[in-house]
Design a protein that fits this description.
Largest interface: A-B, 35 and 39 residues
Structural class of chain B: mainly alpha
Largest sheet of chain A: 6 strands, mixed
Shape of chain A: elongated
Shape of chain B: globular
Order of helices and strands of chain A: HHHHHEEEEEEEEEEHHE
Strand content of chain B: under 5%
Distance between the termini of chain A: 50 Å
Radius of gyration of chain A: 25 Å
Number of helices of chain A: 7
Oligomer: heterodimer
CATH superfamily of the largest domain in chain B: RNA polymerase sigma factor, region 2, helix turn helix motif
Helix content of chain A: 25-40%
Number of strands of chain A: 11
Largest sheet of chain B: none
CATH class of the largest domain in chain A: Mainly Beta
């Protein structure tokens, strides 16, 4: 091969059937490029014969693997979280659309669930059907400083702690806040309600979890119908958004 | 088979050879290339939308595979698994004063950041034009030139010492 020869990336384009005309012309006239192309084809055959059968299962499992709520996502390095929050603020809608009903509960507490789709974030509507493995992020708008918990409950009654991932008492928030990190849904069909609970004083997670669990013992119907969660400290702000996970 | 598995299977059949060839080119070891191909594709299928964007998929795959394999080499070298990095074959576009020492690129690569390593491999090993590497990495041609120059300066300094 000489300096004018087509590089491997360009040859890959040719093998995939999307070459630039100039590259194709060169390869047709160049013995060295044709030899390399033949070598690459042979390696492709080797891949299909030996590599693919030995590795496909792991790859396909990774593609289909349900993504459980990951605490690690909430514990990612702060710069990454700040960047993610900035992305949400940058690409999220400036205001709710006319049919937006993504907030429920107390009039003094707002919760927005953002769906990440194709690199963009958009606010989900309450009750919206979404892919069961969708990735979500959250923004809260408390009317006054309080101690925040964000959690979810699904149709089986499983309560998941989402934010903060560690510590007790809830995270002190004072104003509109895009929560760092995010999470992926668990790829199981059914309702999932996200709740933001913000108490005037620090409150143990176990108490919040217990209250949510007690309010949703009736299965999917109870999750869908859930209004304000009883049994929380007086003055607790609440908001929730329901998503219907579809596979 | 679920939809996600079907889509992943189709992509793996189509683009798996690209990853395998790229990994073999860098790692020079069929077994290591096989394992790397699996690991790279496990990463790729997590972003199915990118895999389905025909306009950008190939540079993206190439970049992910290159970074993975270079990191693999660096980590193996640090663990002492391989006394030397593979003898990367420099392209004919590499500066003439580097050609006599084909292993020089490999020995130097681990001293640089991921972007510089990809630039160096792209230009010196793959024989890519600066514009092509810039497009591959999503950086400017000027940045490619600057990073390559830094790499070459280090390579020449290394040659003078040895």
């Amino acid at each position: 091969m000489d300096a004018t020869c087509t590089n491997d990336l360009a040859l890959e384009e040719l093998l995939l059937g999307m070459p630039a005309p100039a590259q194709q012309d060169h390869v047709e006239r160049c013995a060295a490029c044709q030899a390399r192309l033949a070598e690459m084809r042979a390696l492709g055959d080797h891949f299909r014969q030996y590599v693919l059968p030995a590795t496909a299962e792991a790859v396909l499992d990774a593609a289909a693997r349900p993504r459980a709520w990951s605490l690690a996502r909430w514990l990612a390095p702060l710069p990454a979280l700040a960047a993610a929050a900035a992305v949400i603020l940058a690409v999220g809608p400036a205001g709710p659309p006319a049919d937006y009903v993504g907030e429920k509960g107390s009039a003094t507490m707002g919760l927005t669930v953002f769906l990440q789709e194709a690199g963009l974030a958009r606010a989900a509507s309450d009750g919206e059907a979404v892919p069961a493995a969708a990735r979500v992020r959250f923004k809260v708008r408390p009317a006054h400083p309080c101690h925040l918990w964000v959690l979810s409950v699904d149709g089986t009654g499983l309560v998941s702690r989402l934010f903060p991932a560690a510590g007790e008492g809830g995270r002190a928030v004072e104003q509109t806040t895009v929560l760092p990190g995010g999470a992926a849904l668990d790829d199981q069909a059914g309702p999932e309600r996200f709740l933001a609970v913000c108490a005037p004083e620090p409150v143990e997670y176990a108490r919040v979890e217990g209250a949510v669990r007690a309010a949703t013992t009736g299965g999917p119907g109870a999750v869908r119908a859930l209004g304000a969660v009883p049994g929380l400290p007086a003055g607790t702000l609440q908001s929730s958004v329901l998503l219907e996970k579809r596979r | 088979m679920t939809d996600s598995r079907e889509r992943a299977a189709a992509h793996y059949r189509q683009y798996g050879p690209v990853v395998y060839r790229r990994c073999l080119r860098i790692l020079k070891d069929p077994e290591a290339a096989k394992d790397a191909t699996q690991e790279v594709f496990v990463k790729l299928v997590r972003d199915m939308a990118k895999l389905e964007d025909r306009a950008t998929v190939l540079p993206w795959i190439y970049r992910v595979a290159t970074n993975y394999c270079l990191n693999h080499l660096r980590n193996a070298s640090r663990r002492g698994e391989d006394a030397e990095l593979p003898d990367l074959e420099l392209s004919d576009q590499a500066p003439a004063d580097l050609l006599p020492t084909r292993a020089i690129a490999g020995q130097l690569l681990e001293q640089f950041d991921a972007t510089t390593r990809t630039v160096a491999v792209g230009v010196l090993v793959d024989g890519m034009e600066h514009e092509e590497v810039a497009a591959l990495l999503g950086i400017s041609r000027r940045t490619v030139a600057r990073k390559l120059e830094r790499f070459l300066e280090a390579a020449r300094a290394f040659l003078e010492r040895t």
